[in-house]
Structures are given as structure tokens and as C-alpha cells.
Amino acid sequence: MNKKLVFGVIALIAIIIVGAIIYGYAMREIAPADTAVAADDLNGKAFIITSLDGIPTPVGQEYIVEFANGAVSARICNSLFGDFNIANNIIRATLASTLMFCEEPAGMMDIEFAVSTFLQEGAAIDLSNGTLTLSKDDRDLVLTEVQTQ
Fold first, then answer.
1. What is the pLDDT of residue 41?
2. Quick one: pLDDT at residue 107?
3. 4, 73, 108, 136: least buried by Cβ within 10 Å?
């Protein structure tokens, strides 16, 4: 009877070890350490918002987001501005803004609300090949880098 107990304990330990190894590999695949975005990666860069949730931005105006020295600014309908930080691949900003309402082009205020929400509440950030993606709650905001003037 003691042999069965010892065998059962050994089997349980083996299962736990294998599970921990598999979990470790899975977590490495989800969030590789070499893809972290730092605030310095955005310093001096400007981006045009190209889509929200896979839908291209409305035609008629370029929606610009700029980063410089720990500050972020955006021109959509209103001007948004403030300080930002990135920790654990989450970008957060403390923003202020002008308070206008723009009817046209259609969808402009939805984009502005998304930008404000993503930055103030925090969003996962990815930067690769000139494309900046902010993700939050099954929503994605995609921006493309442009040359600053």
C-alpha cells in the first residue's frame, strides 16, 4: 500500500513539472521579451491613424499622433495633449484636450474617443516596421509612421 502512495506522489510531481514546463513555453510564445516597446522608441515620431477596429479612418483629414520627450499630442477634431509612459508594454497618458464637437467627416469623434480612451485607460502597445498598434478589450487602433517636419 505504501508503494502505491509513493508511486502516486511521484506521478503527481511528474505531472506538475511537465505542466510547468509547457506553461513556461506557452508564455514565452505569448509575450516574447524582445518585443517590449519603450518610450524612447516613440520619441520624435509622428503617426497617422489609419484604422480603428479594422475600419479605415474617414477620408477628409489626417489624424496625427506625435510623441516627443515623454509627451504625446494628437490632432483629430480636438487637440489632445499630455504626458505618457510605457510599462510592461502598456501605454498610459494623462491627457487634456480642447472641447469641440465635429460632425464631419463621419466617424471622427469615434476615433478621437478611442484614442483618448486607449491612452488614458491604458492599452497594449506594439511597434513594428513603422506600424504602431494599440489594443484594448478586443479593439485595435492602427497608426502608420510618417516623417516629422
1. 92
2. 81
3. 4
Fold for 37-146, please state it: Lipocalin (2.40.128)
Its pTM stands at 0.72
In angstroms, what CA-CA distances link 147 with 32, 66, 100, 120? 29, 11, 28, 26
Task: With beta carbons less than 8 A apart as the criterion, state whether 124 and 134 touch.
Answer: yes
Cβ(102)–Cβ(77) below 8 Å: yes
The closest alpha carbon to 71, from 79, 62, 59, 63, belongs to: 79
Domain ranges of the chain: 2-30, 37-146
Low-confidence ranges of the chain (pLDDT < 70): 1, 3-35, 60, 148-149
